[in-house]
Amino acid sequence: MSDEEHHFESKADAGASKTYPQQAGTIRKNGYIVIKGRPCKVVEVSTSKTGKHGHAKCHFVAIDIFNGKKLEDIVPSSHNCDVPHVNRTDYQLIDISEDGFVSLLTENGNTKDDLRLPTDDALLTQVKGGFEEGKDLVLSVMSAMGEEQICAVKDIGTKS
């Protein structure tokens, strides 16, 4: 037995991983994939046949879920790809601040104040217009890989 003390320094944060591995050949259209470090929704998958030198290849065409940019990647179908953990959560809108941040009510009664108004013009006018008219709005927030963004709005009636 050794009398030495060992101290290990952890560089990783506790909690779930931002992605999980999945075999490229099993990823389908409307699924998710990480391309160039960005979480994307797959819009097209084509698989080439096995060639003289090895693997069948999957060609993915995907759209970044946060900025809408089109990205492409080609991966051997037997290799693993990173797939982001994507979550959608609904929050009730409480307030919109002058600097463009929204105040949202979480399920446990706390407020969430770290989200900006959506950059999509149609969504932005829906949120701002509905809020100014005094409607009760529920905002859907999509989160993946440490990023969050408002992706949809639902009107649940007017405030009494």
UniProtKB/TrEMBL annotation:
Residues 85-154 form the Translation initiation factor 5A C-terminal domain. eIF-5A seems to be the only eukaryotic protein to have a hypusine residue which is a post-translational modification of a lysine by the addition of a butylamino group. Keywords: Hypusine, Initiation factor, Protein biosynthesis. Pfam families: eIF-5a, IF5A-like_N. InterPro entries: IF5A-like (IPR001884), IF5A-like_N (IPR048670), IF5A_C (IPR020189), NA-bd_OB-fold (IPR012340), Rib_uL2_dom2 (IPR014722), Trans_elong_IF5A_hypusine_site (IPR019769), Translation_prot_SH3-like_sf (IPR008991). Residues 1-12 have a biased composition (Basic and acidic residues). GO terms for biological process: positive regulation of translational elongation; positive regulation of translational termination. GO terms for molecular function: ribosome binding; RNA binding; translation elongation factor activity; translation initiation factor activity. Residues 1-21 are annotated as: Disordered. PANTHER family: TRANSLATION INITIATION FACTOR 5A FAMILY MEMBER (PTHR11673). Belongs to the eIF-5A family. NCBIfam families: eIF_5A. Translation factor that promotes translation elongation and termination, particularly upon ribosome stalling at specific amino acid sequence contexts. Binds between the exit (E) and peptidyl (P) site of the ribosome and promotes rescue of stalled ribosome: specifically required for efficient translation of polyproline-containing peptides as well as other motifs that stall the ribosome. Acts as a ribosome quality control (RQC) cofactor by joining the RQC complex to facilitate peptidyl transfer during CAT tailing step. This is Eukaryotic translation initiation factor 5A.
